[in-house]
Design goal:
12 helices, alpha/beta, globular, 3-stranded antiparallel beta sheet
């Protein structure tokens, strides 16, 4: 590992927060709430069901900043935990829930300009989503995290496209995270929802933007990034191109084959090993991959950016792009502290 690999400060585009409690959320049971067990431990609950155990790294800016210092992270995008999205709720309820969590997120990130807040929106209602985005930006949020689908509506749904067009017009970065994963006996062993379901869901979301013609219609000004290395998309790009040519009667719904759109989106680096990272760089380009950690959750990468720092195939210019420069360009001026190189 070279000196630059050690010393270049990273920008982490993929982390999550959970506030240390919130008021009773609107809507019917089961509601999301936090069972605080101690000063350092809590459990996210959906009604009477345990959803996830967490600790104070989810809400403590002090602990988060200390871990960032330990990992060599200069800036960290702080996004909602996807269970907050509430896309299955009535739009008015989801808008109210978004306001609660977006305001609480600003309380956590107010501790330091190194913490970059991303809001959530009621994506099931494009007008309400656009309104909450504008309110959140005015309050101090820098970007928005969205789920990869709304029920059976994928990212090429007309309402979702309206929202993405609004993000492009406002010059707002968008981070897409899989959520509401398919279930069933075959996916409920070995954390298979996370190990197989998340990559498949993310792949499908990118495919919807391509074959759904969204990238043909929405301005290239849209800055959109997908979590978890874009799922399995890069691995199967050749298969998708082959299908576009060989079964054009079925999937020839985009103006160009899928490989022509790899410069329209970015992915994070949460792939843990050098070989899949190299695939991402080879397929998407060194300007389309950014450090992500999935902090503070246990399936994330610690130290953040470790796979990028140790990757032997990267030259120092490319490594700096992945560690920092790509993320600063994606965030734009709104997300860059004054004087950040």
């Amino acid at each position: 590992m070279t000196a630059d690999a050690v010393t270049v400060p990273a920008v982490d585009v993929h982390s999550h927060y959970v506030p240390r409690g919130w008021p009773t959320l609107p809507g019917p049971e089961p509601r999301l709430w936090l069972d605080v067990r101690s000063a350092d431990e809590a459990t996210m609950m959906i009604g009477s069901r345990e959803f996830r155990k967490i600790d104070s790294t989810a809400w403590s800016a002090e602990r988060r900043l200390a871990d960032m210092d330990a990992d060599g992270v200069d800036l960290q995008v702080v996004s909602p935990t996807p269970v907050f999205f509430s896309y299955d709720r009535e739009p008015g309820e989801a808008a109210a829930i978004a306001r609660v969590f977006n305001d609480l997120a600003l309380e956590i990130t107010a501790a330091s300009p190194r913490l970059v807040p991303f809001c959530q929106v009621p994506l099931q209602d494009p007008d309400a989503a656009c309104a909450e985005l504008e309110r959140s930006l005015a309050a101090g949020h820098v970007g928005v995290e969205i789920g990869n689908h709304v029920g059976d509506r994928d990212l090429d749904d007309a309402g979702v496209v309206t929202f993405l067009e609004h993000c492009a017009a406002l010059d707002v970065p968008v981070f897409v995270h899989p959520w509401d994963l398919p279930g069933g006996p075959r996916l409920e062993r070995w954390m298979a929802q996370w190990l197989a379901g998340m990559p498949a869901e993310t792949h499908l979301s990118i495919l919807a933007l391509v074959l759904g013609g969204v990238f043909d219609r929405v301005s290239p000004d849209l800055r959109i990034c997908f979590a978890h290395g874009g799922g399995s998309f890069a691995h199967w790009l050749g298969r998708m191109d082959n299908a576009w040519h060989q079964r054009h009667d079925v999937i020839g719904t985009s103006e160009h084959p899928p490989s022509r759109y790899v410069d329209r989106f970015s992915v994070d680096s949460v792939v843990f090993e050098e070989a899949p990272l190299r695939l991402l760089v080879d397929v998407l380009g060194a300007d389309r991959v950014m450090v992500g950690s999935d902090y503070p959750y246990p399936l994330g990468e610690r130290p953040a950016g470790a796979v990028v720092r140790r990757a032997e195939f990267l030259d120092e210019a490319s490594r700096r792009m992945l560690l920092r420069e790509n993320a600063l360009a994606w965030l734009g001026p709104r997300g860059t502290p004054d004087g950040a190189p």
